[in-house]
Amino acid sequence: MLDLPRTGAPRLIEAVAEEYATLSPNRAIAALVPAFIVAQIGIQYGVPVSFNEIIISAIIGSGLAMEEGITNIDRRKVYFTVAAWIVSLVGAFLTTYVLVSVVGDAGVP
Questions:
Q1: In whole numbers, what is the pLDDT of the chain averaged over residues?
Q2: Is residue 92, in this structure, part of any structural domain at all?
Q3: DSSP readout, the chain?
Q4: Residue 108 and residue 87: Cα distance in Å, rounded?
Q5: Do 102 and 68 reside in the same domain of the chain?
Q6: Using CA atoms, how far apart are residues 101 and 99, in angstroms rounded to an integer?
Q7: Domain assignment of residue 13, yes or no
Q8: Same domain, 98 and 57
Q9: Which residue range forms the structural domain that includes residue 83?
Q10: Fewest Cβ atoms nearer than 10 Å: which of 5, 9, 49, 76?
Q11: Is 99 exposed, middle or buried (0-12, 13-18, 19+ CB in 10 A)?
């Protein structure tokens, strides 16, 4: 049997399914439908969207919509996720800016 490298996919699936908010089958479907619609609208208008971020946001919204509300979601995990989204956005912007500045100064069109 091949010893393939392990990915974080099983851990990611567990985190999304259990740790952000508790989902029943109905709530999972209720989270996926708006996520699909938002992704399709983004695609229609040519806006780059992250389906992973849309799904996680929809799951968090589904958890907030329950009777338990904010106690139904893991706030710490949500805060770290939002912080990671912001850091990755700013990091990608700065990295691209620096690389384009360096390559542009090197005379490469």
A1: 78
A2: yes
A3: ---PPP-SHHHHHHIIIIISB---HHHHHHHHHHHHHHHHHHHHTT----HHHHHHHHHHHHHHTSTTGGGGB-HHHHHHHHHHHHHHHHHHHHHHHHHHHHHHHTT--
A4: 29
A5: no
A6: 5
A7: no
A8: no
A9: 75-109
A10: 5
A11: exposed
Mean pLDDT, range 9-38, rounded to an integer: 75
Question: For residue 16, is it within any domain?
Answer: no
Distances 44 to 30, 37, 48, 56 between C-alpha atoms, Å = 22, 10, 10, 21
Q: What is the pTM of this model?
A: 0.63
Per residue in 80-104, pLDDT tens? 888 988 998 899 999 989 888 887 7
Give me the amino acid identity at 77: K
Do residue 39 and residue 62 come from a single domain?
Answer: yes
The residues facing 73 across adjacent strands are 21
CA–CA separation, 63 vs 27, rounded Å? Answer: 8
pLDDT at residue 23 tops 60: yes
Residue 5's pLDDT band (cuts 50, 70, 90): low
